[in-house]
Recover the amino acids of this structure.
């Protein structure tokens, strides 16, 4: 719930409670830079953020033995929004991966999404003019660039269906189930159409209706919802075709509406065609204005603590938080503009570096963006 408290008369600053989950790997570094930028935006636009640091993922396992505690969930719920870095470690070397799957870092992330009912995951992917060099696609394919919003269902499907591993007559067997009911599909579809209305009014619903029952229901319900949005164009695309179209003609997409697992895969692909996964922000929202904001990328344990991480995805996620949860659109615009300006001036972290640009570390990238607000 959004419950901003206004200070005593005179001070006049809007105050918001932000739960901060730095997490593991590069998480703490990128979150620090996002906070730096938020603080600058607060000074400039007259709002104040109060941060409560929470443990999740490996950082929570180390202290509590589990990746997410009930106290952490309660503290997150009591805030206006949650800002997160990334969780997880190296699956080969980290002791966290010797634990049973339900106690590993990723389980914490899935649990917080479910507990806070964050069913709508928005992942914008667009090509910055300045990063065309980093885009792996040919010029004739990227043409006039692209700007899409992936709307991924986040609390159902394969991620949350029943699963088990058994041994039957000496043969190991594993089962995962992909389940959706029509209400789950309807609420995410509505979000997708609402967002499309504010953009280029086109929804591509992605499924595997030629094989899966869950996709056939998905398609039917999306068509029902579409009737309420006659001004929005709807088309359906099979997920394998979508994976191909993303690298053949990314400019054709406006809103991609899809189930949890397909959205996980397609959003990584979409991020890479923008030049780097280090650029892709995300918002995970429930029915109210409350949301959790995190970069779409992982915790990159191989570069943790080396000041090499790209903080831009986290900074852009913080901008989404200002816009969606706190209604601070002007400040959100300013953060996004500052990111563009820094890129235009030629500053790059290692992942998006190209000839003729100036390479900077994570901290300096944060400083440069904050200075331009
Ligand atoms: C993501 C991540 C997570 C997911 C992992 C870390 C569980 O890949 O946010 O896309 O699969 O949802
Ligand atoms: Mg993913």
């Amino acid at each position: 719930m959004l419950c901003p408290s206004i200070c005593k008369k005179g001070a006049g600053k809007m105050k918001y409670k932000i739960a901060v989950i730095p997490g593991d790997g590069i998480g703490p570094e990128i979150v620090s830079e996002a906070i730096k930028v938020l603080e600058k935006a607060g000074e400039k636009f007259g709002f104040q953020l109060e941060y409560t640091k929470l443990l999740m993922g490996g950082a929570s396992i180390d202290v509590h033995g589990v990746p997410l505690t009930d106290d952490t969930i309660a503290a997150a719920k009591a805030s206006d929004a949650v800002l997160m870095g990334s969780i997880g470690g190296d699956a080969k070397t980290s002791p966290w991966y010797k634990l049973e799957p339900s106690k590993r870092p990723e389980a914490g992330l899935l649990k917080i999404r479910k507990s806070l009912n964050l069913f709508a995951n928005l992942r914008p992917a667009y090509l910055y003019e300045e990063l065309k060099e980093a885009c792996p696609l040919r010029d004739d394919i990227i043409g006039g660039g692209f700007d899409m919003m992936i709307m991924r269902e986040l609390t159902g499907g394969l991620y949350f269906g029943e699963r088990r591993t058994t041994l039957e007559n000496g043969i190991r067997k594993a089962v995962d189930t992909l389940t959706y009911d029509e209400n789950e599909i309807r609420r995410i579809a509505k979000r997708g159409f609402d967002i499309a209305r504010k953009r280029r009014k086109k929804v591509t619903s992605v499924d595997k209706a030629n094989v899966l029952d869950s996709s056939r229901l998905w398609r039917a319900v999306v068509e029902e919802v579409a009737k309420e949005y006659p001004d929005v164009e709807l088309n359906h695309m099979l997920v394998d075709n979508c994976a191909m179209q993303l690298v053949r003609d990314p400019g054709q997409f406006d809103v991609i509406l899809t189930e949890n697992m397909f959205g996980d895969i397609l959003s990584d692909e979409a991020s890479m065609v923008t030049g780097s996964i280090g650029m892709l922000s995300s918002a995970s929202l429930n029915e109210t204005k409350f949301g959790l904001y995190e970069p779409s990328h992982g915790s990159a344990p191989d570069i943790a603590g080396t000041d090499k991480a790209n903080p831009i995805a986290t900074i852009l996620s913080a901008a989404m938080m200002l816009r969606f949860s706190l209604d601070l659109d002007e400040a959100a615009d300013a953060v996004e503009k500052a990111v563009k300006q820094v890129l235009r001036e030629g500053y790059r972290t290692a992942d998006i570096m190209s000839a003729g640009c100036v390479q900077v570390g994570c901290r300096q990238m944060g400083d440069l963006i904050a200075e331009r607000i």
User: Anything to note?
Assistant: Residues 88, 106, 109, 264, 296 surround 3-isopropylmalic acid (ligand 1) (CB under 6 Å). Residues 1-10 have pLDDT under 50 and may be disordered. The chain has twelve helices and 15 strands. The radius of gyration is 21 Å.
